[in-house]
Amino acid sequence: MPQRPAPFRPLLAGTAVLTALALAACGTTEAPAESPAPGAASESVTVTDARGQEVEIPAGVEDVVALEWAVVEHLQTVGVEPVGVADVAGYTDWAGTGAPLQGEPTDVGTRVEPSIDAIAGLAPDLIVAVAGRDAGAYADLEAIAPVVVLQGADAAAPLETMYDDLRLVGQAVGAEDAAEQAITAFEAHVDELTATVEEAGLAGTSLAQMDGYDNGGQIAIRPYAEGALLPAAFEAIGFENGWPGEGDAQYGLGATDVEGLSTLGDDTHILYMAVGDDDVFVNQLADNAIWTGLPTVQAGNVHRLPDGIWLFGGVDSLTAYLDALVETLAPTP
């Protein structure tokens, strides 16, 4: 795994599927022994996903497989514990603080190559993925269960896209009200933090969120440009994005090197996250003359935020991120 996991990957493995076993395990003609789980749909629903494809989802969705970490969070937010998750250990490291994993889901492989056999063995009612994979790669999954694809991100409207994905998950599992309640609660918290930032005299402070990678001794920096989710979140509470470069059209992520950080304003605060001792900014850049010579570094404006808050997550991750950010820059007495 790279030091800073990417939010998505372009391909899905086309492993053979035990379709007959998967289909045989799905559903029954008998009346259910128990009432449907809270939020489960009472009748089938058809949704239109990020592919523009209509997906019919049967009644009573309970067992859902999540192929991306943001999907896991969205499901949990509306009250569904996924039965299968891609890269459980990675989720625990990178997202487990902001949105702790609920239940004991089966690991279904990596986000790059989820295991078709493992997914089929779970006989899920629904599989949820994110845009970015080869469209032809969904055929094996669709032989197991309906597949709903979320947009994942859109640099033209990052917060709105996150809301739309959460709403789509809520619609797919019959929990629209839970999705709306979560969005309303998040927006109310944003209002509270906006007041805190204003009272602390921090409104308009320039921030630059970034990741650092050590690629065989060469340090690469991934800045979060305008349109990335995290800057959109901190801009919503009164800060400004201090990274001047552009990012990609989906996730708003840029690329530069240490020298490229000289474009930052002298008063811009640098923010980053890491896992454990894997800290490029401390371990590899401590003796780098360009890095240590940056005015903002010399001023002590470099902040490592807590581990385990997913940088491409949902309302719970963003709440944890913004709370940590405000506490870092304006600590409570």
From TrEMBL:
Ranges of residues in domain Fe/B12 periplasmic-binding: 63-333
Keyword Lyase: no
Domain of life per record: Bacteria
Coiled-coil zones: none
Keywords of the record: Signal, Transport
This protein's GO CC annotations: outer membrane-bounded periplasmic space
Signal peptide bounds: 1-24
Family the UniProt entry places it in: Belongs to the bacterial solute-binding protein 8 family.
Official protein name in the record: ABC transporter substrate-binding protein
Species whose genome carries this gene: Agrococcus baldri
Native organism taxonomy: Bacteria, Bacillati, Actinomycetota, Actinomycetes, Micrococcales
